[in-house]
Amino acid sequence: MVIATALLLGSFQQPSLSDEYGRKIAGDIIGHETVPLLVQNDKPPWWTGWWFRLIVLGAVAGLFFAFLNYQYRQQQLLLENQRLRTEKDLAFRLEHDRIAAEIHDDLGSGLTTIRLLSLLAREMEDDPVKAARLDKIARSASEVMEKMADIVWVMNSRNDTFENLAHHLRRCAGDYLDSHGIQFQIEIPDQLPALPLSGEHRKNVLLAMKECLHNVVKHAGATEVCICISINGQLEIMVKDNGKGIPSEYVSAFYAGCNALAGNGLYNLRQRMKALGGSVEIENRCGTRVVLRTGISLKQVANCP
């Protein structure tokens, strides 16, 4: 009996139809059943070829360079946005400074003239009714000039520092309390952080402290006021007086959020601090002690562009 087989040294492939036919004839001739015919295939698999490896390498390299190009374009886009934002902020600041200068020069000089003329007319007026009206004009001009000075200070970008804010608060508090015959003491740290502070932040802090001083003059009947500016992770301002204090029901209404009973002054105080992300603490202790926790942290202003 002769059995024909082929030994495959490498890979094997499925026999073709001609192979099947040949085995059938061979089996019929020798009188035996057909046997599987193993055909030797010397051709290596297609995925082991150099051309396939070259294609895979090229695809990987293409993906890598596409990723690098995407990263580069994203970085360039980020830098361009930062440049545009910086230019916009600079233009905004310059426009603010220009408006502030025009307000100071034009409106300031006009209001000063109105005040001086009304005072001169008051000295020459013998009629008490007309004299009272002239006094009112002079006072109104002075009040508008004071508010205008605050607006100019807020708009001027050169004042966007902790140090300038502290000195401006000291000057405003000193002028206001001194004009009402109230002794005062102001404590400011020797070293203030050299960090930027936006005009919006400075405005809310200034108006909040003025509201505190207004309450002292109008309601407390105090003779002494102590103001302490400190930076304990955030900017804090403490205003303490030796007056009669705030009625306890007003303080309770303030913490309960009852604005109708607490009054507009305390409500405005809370809204100013809320706009900054801070809070207000009110305590009756040998007078009134108000702490303005502004929420302006050093980390926050350091991250500002």
Care to describe what's here?
With about 300 residues, the protein is α+β, with helices and mostly antiparallel strands. The protein has 3 domains: about 10-55, no CATH class; about 65-160; about 160-305, Heat Shock Protein 90 (2-Layer Sandwich). Helix content is about 60%, strand content about 15%. The protein is built from 9 helices and 7 strands; from the N terminus they run βαβαααβαββαααββα. The protein has helices at about 15-30, 50-125, 130-155, 160-180, 200-220, 250-255, 260, 265-275, 300, and strands at about 10, 40, 185, 225-230, 235-240, 280-285, 290-295. The chain has a 5-stranded mixed sheet with strand order 3-4-5-7-6. A two-stranded antiparallel sheet has the order 1-2. β3 (about 185), α5 and β4 form a beta-alpha-beta unit. α2 (about 50-125) packs antiparallel against α3, α3 (about 130-155) packs antiparallel against α5 (about 200-220) and α5 (about 200-220) packs antiparallel against α8. The chain is elongated, with a radius of gyration of 43 Å. Residues about 1-35 have low confidence and may be disordered.
Rg over alpha carbons:
43 Å
**Mean pLDDT over all positions:** 78
Strand content: 5-15%
Kindly state the percentage of residues in helix.
Answer: 55-70%
Would you give the CATH topology of the largest domain? Heat Shock Protein 90
Low-confidence stretches: 1-35
In spatial order, strands of the major sheet run 3-4-5-7-6
**Multimeric organization:** single chain
Termini Cα gap: 95 Å
CATH superfamily of the largest domain: Histidine kinase-like ATPase, C-terminal domain
Structural class: alpha+beta
Query: What is the number of independent domains?
Result: 3
CATH architecture of the largest domain: 2-Layer Sandwich
Tally of DSSP helical segments = 9
| Top-tier CATH class of the largest domain | Alpha Beta
Task: Give the total of beta strands.
Answer: 7
| Approximate shape | elongated
Q: Biggest sheet, open or closed, and with what strands and sense? A: 5 strands, mixed
